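== Fold encoding ==
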Amino acid sequence: MRLDVVTIFPEYLEPLNVSLVGKARARGDLDVRVHDLRAWTHDRHHTVDDTPYGGGPGMVMKPEPWGEALDEVLADAGDDEQPVLVVPTPSGRPFTQEMAVELSGKPWLVFTPARYEGIDRRVIDEYGERLDVREVSIGDYVLAGGEAPVLVMVEAIARLLPGVLGNAESHRDDSFAPGAMAGLLEGPVYTKPPEWRGRGIPEVLLSGHHGRIARWRRDQALARTADHRPDLIAGCDPSALDKHDRAALEALGWRQGTDGRFWPEGEHVEE
């Protein structure tokens, strides 16, 4: 996979040289290219922003350097190798594990982390006519720039690529992963020693009984999700829950409505 990042702070992307992503780059499994947007400015101050039309606080990133930068980055793209342009913005679609899985299947991603009040809209509209453009948010909050979201998204995407994780099965039961856990949060995990500061390991994990261990992990995932992200339980497809899941949720104080979905007791209003 090829990843290009255009930014005014290339040094912010240094973490891409360490850990799993850094190792994948060193092996050649991941081709990451970081570009300094200021290289496409033509004044002595390397200006990349200007005041917004219509007034208001803050500055807006100018279209000219972005256009020149993206044209050059995309210059070697053939008709059959068009990248996905990923625009980090608080007003974008939420970045999810499902989106990470989808993007991990793309051969080429180009990220455009902005600063100030964002990029002149004409840039997004211009490239949206020829590329698959994704405006993506990593959460309902505002950061000083888009570089941190790029680091988040690249790590979430890269770890799904073949060969990046030491154990190819490691991401199968991640929180939010589609499949076995049906979008639930992952439960608690333990390792050696069996006792630490007077705290032991749940006996079921020492039993060697794979069926009971799987059930315990599922129950723990349900309990953690109900506590930390009740919206995921409320939005869960009832067909993804077996009778043991339903019993576990009822024990946690959830009740099944006439629509089949589960709700915290006393909160569901029938339609």
User: Anything to note?
Assistant: Helices lie at 19-27, 63-73, 97-104, 121-128, 147-158, 210-228, 230-234, 243-251.
